[in-house]
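Protein entry
_____________
===
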Amino acid sequence: MKRIIRLVLAGVIIAAAAGGYWFYGRGGAVASGDFTIETVAAETGSVRRIVAASGAVRALVTVEVGSQLSGQLSELSVDFNDTVEAGQVIAQIDPQTFETRVREAEASRATAAANVQLQRASLQRVEANFRTAELDFQRIETLNARGNASDAALDTARASFEASQAELNVARAQIANAQAVLQQREATLAGARIDLERTTIRSPINGIVVDRAVDQGQTVAASLSAPTLFTIAQDLSLVQIDAQVDEADIGQIREGQAVSFTVDAYPGTQLQGEVEQIRLAPTTLQNVVTYTVVISAANPGQRLLPGMTANMDIVTGEATDVLTVRNGALRFRPAPGLADRTQPLAEAGQGGGRPAGGRPGGGGGGGRGGPMGQLTEQLDLTADQQERVRGAFRAAFGRAQAAAQAGGGFDREAIQQEVDREMTSILTPEQMIRYREIQREARETRPGSVWVETAEGILEERRVRLGISDSQNTVVVGGNLEVGDAVVVRAREVRE
């Protein structure tokens, strides 16, 4: 209880001290009405936008080697970290039981083969009897036709012939059955030999043994699934990192983007990789949705080991030798006390700002500065392509305006989709790739404004078009801003 009272008193004292500081050191000061303007010059520089992620290092190909058979491991030929080649013997299951099964299957096959020979000999005897019965029947039939043999003799000869024919069919069926049994015994023998071969465990790939799950003399039991004996990683000179990227950042990730990363084992070493795949299957953990981004990287000297945690910076955008402003300048807005020192946008003459990155600007239809002129220049459109592109834009806007007048609203997304479909039939594959890049660049820009302090001390608002940002700077891709302009980042009121 006393401890609680002491804590409460200490809190009261700290609060009183903070209040006294505010009143006497700051709150008691009187505003003079003057402001200190902090500016930073717009300058040419580089901006690098990154998405931070982490993931585990693993081999490009990892194979778990198991056993399809149950038995005792009589021999282990490899151990942890051993290098193996495809087909190399790495373990041996005691083969005695399976050798016995092979000998049993061989004997069974020999019995079946002998039975086939026996049935073939029986067939030869039946065929001889059949030919004798056939000749007797034909002879009696001829004599009967001449009146030299009775009908009873003819009937007896016919019955004997038909009986021998039935015996012949039975003999042939018995041969077919004996041959089928022989094939069955051969299949059983082949299966027994396969099982015997499987007692020798071989490496399926070239690689390194990263895990051994059994010891010599241990009995493995293969029932519903094959027990894992070894884990082999293929070629650790190349590794793969499965990074988990938040759904808010996944839209910035593209295949082929550069990646820099570090691992705790080598904190001073910056390693490089590349985005290889973006997997579509989401992972949800505590209502947080992430996606797996596969990153491939070289592993010189095989320093990176499977399971290491890599802390990565995925470079989603990079611009060099471009006009930049500080991020604080984009957040600055003049306080009411600076009203007499600000110049409205209309008076400053900063209408709409020029377009950037091939995006349609505030005006200009088909001129060199308008959207059509920019597409023509950047895509190197022919005269025929230009006319077809103009027609596609006119048709799409016409249908959208008609839908808006009918009460359906002006759907810019539908216009863009319709134009994109038309572009597919107008542009060449190379031009279409560049067109997609222009669209992506346009989507990555946004409007904004900054305040510039002139030589006369007047604050002018400048409309700009902004590109990618990092933690400090943002690229200016369009607008009325030049290198050296004094961009306001902060205004502090002077207190007396």
Observations:
- Residues 1-5, 15-32, 346-369 have pLDDT under 50 and may be disordered.
